[in-house]
Amino acid sequence: MNIFQRVYIAxxxxxxxxxxxxxxxxxxxxxxxxxLDADAVHFKHFGLIGDIVYAIPAxxxxxxGRKIHLHLQINQKSLYKKGMKHGNKDKIxxxxxxxxxxxxxxxxxxxxxxxxxxxxxxxxxxxxxRKYPFDYNKGHICRWYFQTxxxxxxxxxAWLQVEPDVRYSNEIVIARSFRYxxxxxxxxxxxxxxxxxxxxxKEEYEDMKKQLPSLRYVPVSNFLEFARVVAxxxxxxxxxSFPFAVAEALKVRRALEVYFxxxxxxxxxxxxxxxxxxxxxxxxxxxxxxxx
Length: 292
Description:
The chain is an alpha/beta fold and 292 residues long. Helix content is 34%, strand content 14%. The protein has 2 domains: 40-149; 166-289, Glycogen Phosphorylase B (Rossmann fold). A 6-stranded parallel beta sheet has the order 7-6-5-8-9-10, with helices on both faces. The protein has a 4-stranded parallel beta sheet with strand order 3-2-1-4. It is globular, with a radius of gyration of 20 Å. The relative contact order is 0.13.
């Protein structure tokens, strides 16, 4: 590194620290010690649905054995840049999103309520981390909640539990959103593997089927059914979207396609792979397929 590069980096870091410090000075911390009911804790969240899954460890840590009441704020404007495809288009969560998600969450130990936010009591606002100057393109989504509310959990252990759908025990289950696709990554080599199933949006499936003609689509009526398919699979492959959040929470055998501009999902625990280059991707799939 020459002197000009060192000077440039020093100036950039100094400028970033100044901006960070200025932003931090404007943040009023949340209530870290709210007066809680003896039997229930009320949480608010406006999505995204993957973020809600990544918030569960923090909810469990904050609830401390009390029942979890989750109230979801719908019809908030999308956080995605214009032109980025998303199932809810210009909204983060809709009433349909809540209807799809509720069966999965209410099947979990400790969850008593998952409904649309109206005028319910709120003990912890899980969107509060957005007031802090985190670099949202880096780090670990789960840990933003930890850092906001001063809690922790073992992210190497499963935080979702479902009965696996055994019909998919020999299936490689794939999900790939239009967002967060790593450059240079192709799934065409999966043609040499049998039993390929796709979960996700129908238009995502149609796009993937161009590479994999034998790919089958798995329709679901809610996200509990969806999670059971993922849990029952031989292994799961996905990019940084809701399906991988479910696979990560279930701790199934899995591999994550990492998007280089936004590496904010970090697999933890056994048989959790990640890739961003083609040769390594193919090696990972071979290991998962052969149980190595």
